[in-house]
């Protein structure tokens, strides 16, 4: 009994394998971008709107590759985002002072304001993204295999 193994396209296979790191990085970047942009969209859906400044301030950053790590993120630099996300306790003016608020063009003065409940738009968006991660990276794997000439 004779066994024979043939590998007729070894040269083409070697060329495809040489491009593997670039292909993997490209597809991982695409997958991470898709997830972070979806996270941005989910967060904006849950963000309360008065003037829209907070919602407009939520942005996703394009994925960055550093060594073997691909990182994507979304967030905001609006200073009052954290109290809106996490809530805050009651606020009381210093003795002899008043708190000043402008709501809809009307200026209000109060000695104290009640606590505000958290809106948890970022936390809820992360929870909605979590089940999508496995699905997205299964698709990334399929795209990598297809680009490398696999099935």
How are the SSEs placed, and which strands pair?
Elements: H1 10-18, H2 20-46, H3 53-57, E1 59-66, E2 69-75, H4 81-86, E3 91-92, E4 99-103, E5 106-110, E6 112-113, H5 121-147
Antiparallel strand pairs: 1-2, 3-6, 4-5
Helix pairs in contact: 2-5
Domains, number: 1
- Major sheet: arrangement of strands: 1-2
Secondary structural class: alpha+beta
Describe the main β-sheet briefly: 2 strands, antiparallel
**With helices defined by DSSP (H or I, 4 residues minimum), what is the helix count?**
5
Give Rg in angstroms: 25 Å
Helix proportion: 40-55%
3D architecture notes:
This protein has helices at residues 10-18, 20-46, 53-57, 81-86, 121-147, and strands spanning 59-66, 69-75, 91-92, 99-103, 106-110, 112-113. By secondary structure, the protein is α+β, with helices and mostly antiparallel strands. It has one domain (10-87, 116-147). Strands 1-2 form a two-stranded antiparallel sheet. A two-stranded antiparallel sheet has the order 3-6. The chain has a two-stranded antiparallel ribbon with strand order 4-5. Helix 2 (20-46) runs antiparallel to helix 5.
């Amino acid at each position: 009994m004779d066994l024979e193994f043939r590998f007729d396209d070894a040269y083409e296979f070697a060329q495809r394998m040489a491009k593997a790191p670039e292909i993997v990085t490209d597809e991982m970047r695409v997958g991470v971008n898709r997830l972070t942009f979806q996270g941005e969209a989910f967060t904006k859906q849950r963000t309360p709107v008065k003037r829209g400044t907070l919602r407009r301030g939520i942005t996703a950053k394009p994925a960055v590759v550093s060594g073997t790590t691909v990182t994507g993120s979304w967030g905001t630099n609006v200073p009052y985002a954290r109290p809106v996300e996490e809530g805050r306790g009651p606020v009381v003016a210093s003795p002899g002072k008043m708190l000043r608020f402008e709501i809809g063009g009307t200026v209000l003065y109060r000695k104290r304001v009640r606590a505000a409940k958290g809106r948890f738009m970022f936390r809820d968006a992360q929870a909605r993204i979590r089940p999508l991660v496995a699905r997205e990276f299964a698709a990334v794997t399929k795209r990598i295999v297809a680009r490398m000439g696999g099935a």
